[in-house]
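Quick log. Single chain, no ligands specified.
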Amino acid sequence: MTDELNMSEKLRTYLERKLAETSLKIEKEKRKKRIIQTLSISTAVISIVISAIVASIALPPLAVSIMCVSSAILTGVNLRFNFQDKTHEVKKLIEKLNKIQAKLDYVISCNGNLTQTAYHEILKEFNL
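-> predicted structure:
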């Protein structure tokens, strides 16, 4: 009985640590996503402003060429940011977090009566 209780406590501690790690990863990914969105919007706005300046002001040909190239580069950077979709990554981490929470709730509900098989299955599931 004490061995089963010990297994439950070890597993509970392990799942709580995994839960904290996953929560931290989610926060980091959300922060990255906000930064990428900000950079994406900024590059789009700057590209539009450059295009508007080129279209509205009579500039020497060299200046027009430089501004057009700058606008094209900013558009390319913006597209690159848009392709790095962090939303999918965050959703996967949230699913993992929910799965860990469900297993933790299960371990707690067993109240120390966790079988050896269930213990090994849960460990195997989260050690991948």
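The chain has a mean pLDDT of 80.
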